[in-house]
Structure formats: C-alpha cells, structure tokens
Amino acid sequence: MAQVKANAETIREFKTRLNGTISMIRGAAAKVRAVGNEGWNDVQGQQFHVTMQKTAQLIESPIETLKAQLPKLEKLAQALDEYGRIRF
Q1: Where are the domains of the chain?
Q2: Which tens digits make up the pLDDT trace of 16-27?
C-alpha cells in the first residue's frame, strides 16, 4: 500500500502563501497603475498611461487562476484530515 506523504497543515500553509502571493500581485499592479497617472497631457503621456494600464492588467491576469485553486487546496487538506483519522 502506498504511503501518503502529504500533510493537511502543509497544504493550509501553502494556501496562506498563495493568498499572500495574490496580494503581492495586486500590490505590484497598483504600483504600475500609479506610475501611469503622472498627469502628462501629451500624446506620449497618453500612450505611456495606456501601456501602464495594459501592463497592470497583465500582471493581474493570473489572480483568478490562483484564486480558483484555493477551494481545491482546502478540499485536499480536508481529505488529508479525514485520511489521518483512519486507524488500521
């Protein structure tokens, strides 16, 4: 029989780190957006602003994928909790 080498607490720690990563990504995108708001009124300033907005969107693009994994990780942790309660 195969031995389970995963730990529910390890999975939950990973979830916490994943939430932290999501927050860091949001923070990075916010900083990029702030750079694009310098108040430049010429064409180059507008182009720069558009570029910064697109860059911020690209930075944020993995957030939904990461958030979708959080419930799956919790389900895995719960399954490991249940498995750990089984005594042979």
Answers
A1: 8-82
A2: 999 999 999 999
**Burial, 56: exposed, middle or buried (Cβ in 10 Å; 0-12, 13-18, 19+)?**
buried
CB half-sphere exposure, 88, CA atoms < 13 A: 4
Q: Distance (Å, rounded) from C-alpha 60 to C-alpha 55?
A: 9
Structure-token match 């799956």, residue found: 72
Q: Which two tokens stand for residue 28?
A: 């990075």
Report which secondary-structure segment, H or E, holds 22.
helix 8-35
- In angstroms, the Cα distances linking 26 to 17, 20, 52, 72 are 14, 10, 14, 22
pTM above 0.85, yes or no: no
**What is the structure's pLDDT at 30?**
95
Q: How far is CA 33 from the centre of its chain?
A: 18
